[in-house]
Design a protein that fits this description.
Oligomer: single chain
Shape: globular
Helix content: 40-55%
Number of helices: 21
CATH superfamily of the largest domain: Alkaline Phosphatase, subunit A
Largest sheet: 9 strands, mixed
CATH topology of the largest domain: Alkaline Phosphatase, subunit A
CATH class of the largest domain: Alpha Beta
Strand content: 5-15%
Radius of gyration: 32 Å
Structural class: alpha/beta
Distance between the termini: 53 Å
């Protein structure tokens, strides 16, 4: 064969495979768009994008087939398949066995999906990684065993059936090549692979692409028989035009995808388009800054890594670094950090018991007026404490929130690095435990095993790190109380003041901490809410035990007690569950109760941040005001000097994607005065709320001209708050 003939043959093969792959991908795109209830434009985007990707896959496939054909011919694969399903030269016994096995395998595959679905669904609520892996492995084994049992039974039945059928009508059935492919390849593969992809797609991780590719190729093979018939009846010019039309349609779809304003939102509601566009953005990220100029990536400088949606925009320098269309105009509000209201005798080396309860929201606490009595002890305790009704976390994920809380600095002014599991601050990192250790304190933190292993940024700086046993995460409160009491006694015996942090996880999803007959039922129509409330009630018991031990040690009146949460929790509000997805009120609003011996109780409705805790402790202990560089403001300002409170004081919140299987997002948020600006810079989604009139943040006013000036003011505050690598370290 000459070189010219070889090239011509490859050109025909490429055309053939493009005609197979592009239409299948186009149909998948249309189905994906329709299933997502998308608009007509969005369906064109889905269909066109997948059609172009299908055409590219067709080219790759054609080249691979051209290379693999000699190998297949040498192995006589086509001949072996024909002998197995056809009576022309094939053994009758083999033909009967292939028919029976085909049916048995198809039924067995369907039978395996049922236990697989149950196991995968159950595993989604398991937060302990090792337990989840065990459940999935056991579930996979059960599914395989179920498939083997069903296959064995069905094989016996199918053998008898096909032997009877062969005597009546003669096998093989069907006799045509297309029918045989459909019966022995298309249907069995589809029956198994499609349900597996639908049920366990997320759990498969990168392997889901391989499963999807197998399905696509098998469907493409089904179309092959139709194309072969049509191809022989159409002139080459018509085939070339049809191929060009498919490629052009794909190009149109990609063009729409690059400028379509709702691209990111469309991805979140689709199945296939989401994975494909994520892959395409990674491939077309030419400057490797994490963003592409195509497919809704938003990169305005595709060959300049110093400019992109996650780059900090330097204010007033004439350069649009963050690709939002204009240079940033940054503004800041200078806060008075300390109240200077304490007399010399009110500042001393108090002990500090810092109780952080994971995922708790104040509107589920009876201490904040909740109708169910979830926190009876805390309700009584708070009569002699400061109760803050409008406290917000500076991040809605523990790995970001707690380092920020301990340092008094918002995430956007801390330099971060990627840890093995979660982000962590770049060392050296100035925080409360380090400061207090340098001033003679015995510092300790009690956490679950998972946090000790996976979140070194949280425990950083503490002298003593105690953890609950490995198997009790999310219900470890009882162990942590014991460890906290040991830390109290160790410090007292050493005659040193203590700073102890205890992180109670019993209210965290999967809400397994609230067990025991000592707890009230706290029944709700939503099962997770009932379990969540009982988890909060359990932590109330734990707080009572720790306070009782302080009293037994005669340390209660020498100890500052702080009770708060690292973030809130969503139960369907704004279409989200759990936390770490946004900074809207249900995920950012947290309880904050502080008892300082001798300073009495008070209810404060001024908006405050958890970054205010570090300067509060610094001021109460009489440490130098320059000891920590903080973004927060001492809580003594609203408590003792309300005249110094700036009602426009900005309170910031941040969160970004921490798990790769989720769509990418990066949320920055600021509350100032009556307003809340909340924007996702990855999804180009802006929300603006009047929180005085709309405290649950249900009415987005971002498009209203009435609030344009306030929106721009808050936008400037967000820009002015960017002082670290937080936007680019990922």
């Amino acid at each position: 064969m000459t070189a010219e003939t070889g090239v011509s043959s490859l050109r025909v093969r490429i055309q053939h495979h493009v005609l197979l792959a592009a239409p299948v991908a186009l149909v998948v795109g249309v189905i994906d768009g329709v299933a997502a209830a998308a608009s007509g434009t969005a369906i064109v985007v889905c269909a066109g994008t997948l059609a172009l990707v299908g055409a590219i896959y067709g080219v790759v496939q054609a080249v691979a087939v051209a290379i693999g054909m000699p190998v297949a011919a040498r192995l006589r694969l086509a001949e072996r398949f024909a002998r197995a399903v056809d009576d022309r030269g094939g053994s009758e016994a083999v033909i009967l066995e292939v028919h029976a096995d085909g049916v048995a395998l198809t039924v067995a595959a369907l039978a395996a999906v049922a236990p697989l679905y149950v196991i995968v669904t159950a595993s989604e609520s398991i937060q302990i990684a090792s337990t989840r892996v065990i459940v999935l492995v056991v579930g996979g084994i059960v599914a395989v065993l179920a498939a083997f049992v069903v296959r064995g039974v069905m094989l016996l039945v199918a053998r008898r059936f096909f032997k009877w059928l062969h005597g009546r009508v003669g096998l093989p059935r069907p006799r045509g090549r297309a029918g045989q492919y459909c019966a022995f390849v298309f249907l069995p593969t589809t029956a198994f692979a499609v349900p597996v992809l639908y049920v366990a797609g997320g759990a498969l991780g990168p392997w889901r692409f391989l499963v999807a590719l197998v399905i696509f190729t098998v469907w493409q093979g089904m179309l092959h028989f139709f194309v072969m018939r049509v191809r022989d009846r159409l002139p080459r010019v018509a085939l070339a035009r049809l191929t060009t039309l498919l490629v052009v349609l794909g190009a149109v779809g990609v063009s729409y995808a690059s400028v379509f304003a709702g691209m990111r939102e469309l991805e979140r509601s689709t199945y296939v388009t989401q994975d494909v566009t994520t892959l395409l953005r990674a491939v077309t990220d030419f400057d490797r800054d994490g963003h592409s100029a195509l497919f809704g990536g938003g990169d305005c400088a595709p060959y300049d890594a110093a400019r992109g949606p996650s780059i900090r925009d330097e204010a007033n320098n004439g350069v649009d670094e963050d690709c939002d269309g204009s240079d940033a105009v940054g503004t800041t509000i200078e806060l008075k950090t300390y109240s200077d209201a304490l007399e010399a005798g009110q500042k001393k080396k108090y002990n500090v018991l810092f109780v952080v309860v994971d995922s708790v929201r104040p509107d589920h606490m009876s201490a904040y007026g909740y109708s169910k009595d979830t926190t009876p002890f805390l309700k009584g305790f708070s009569k002699d404490a400061w109760v803050f009704w409008d406290a917000h976390s500076q991040a809605t994920a523990t790995s970001l929130s707690m380092p920020s809380m301990f340092s008094g600095r918002r995430p956007a002014s801390i330099d971060w690095k990627n840890g093995r599991y979660y982000p962590q601050p770049v060392a050296p990192f100035a925080n409360l435990p380090r400061l207090l250790a340098d001033n003679g304190y015995d510092t300790a933190i009690a956490v679950n095993y998972r946090m000790k292993v996976k979140m070194p940024g949280v425990i950083d700086g503490h002298q003593h790190i105690a953890n609950a046993p490995k198997g009790v995460s999310w219900r470890s409160g009882g162990h942590l109380v014991g460890l906290t009491i040991q830390a109290m006694e160790r410090a007292k015996n050493a005659k040193r003041p203590f700073y102890i942090v205890v992180h109670l996880d019993d209210a965290h999803v999967p809400y397994t901490g609230g067990v025991g007959r000592a707890l009230p039922r706290l029944a709700s129509s939503v099962r997770d809410v009932t379990k969540f409330d009982r988890g909060i009630a359990m932590t109330d018991h734990y707080l009572q035990a720790m306070v009782a031990h302080l009293q037994n040690l005669d340390l209660y009146d020498e100890t500052i007690i702080i009770y708060t949460a690292d973030h809130g929790e969503a139960f369907g509000e704004h279409n989200e569950q759990y936390h770490g997805f946004n900074c809207l009120v249900e995920q950012s609003h947290v309880p904050l109760i502080v008892r300082v011996p001798g300073l009495g109780g008070k209810h404060i409705h001024t908006r405050v941040s958890l970054t205010d805790i570090a300067p509060t402790i610094t001021e109460l202990l009489g440490l130098p005001e320059t000891a920590l560089t903080v973004d927060g403001q001492s809580l003594l300002v609203p408590v003792l000097r309300p005249d110094l409170v700036d009602k426009q004081r900005p309170v910031f919140c941040y969160v970004h994607r921490l798990f790769q299987k989720r769509p990418d997002y990066f949320v920055e948020s600021v509350r100032s005065g009556n307003y809340h600006l909340h924007r996702d810079i990855m999804q180009s989604n802006v929300q603006f709320f009047d929180v005085e009139k709309d405290p649950k943040e249900k009415r987005n006013l971002a498009d209203g001209a009435l609030y344009k000036a306030e929106l721009e003011r808050l936008s400037g505050l967000l820009t002015g708050a960017r002082r670290s690598n937080f936007y680019s370290y990922r």
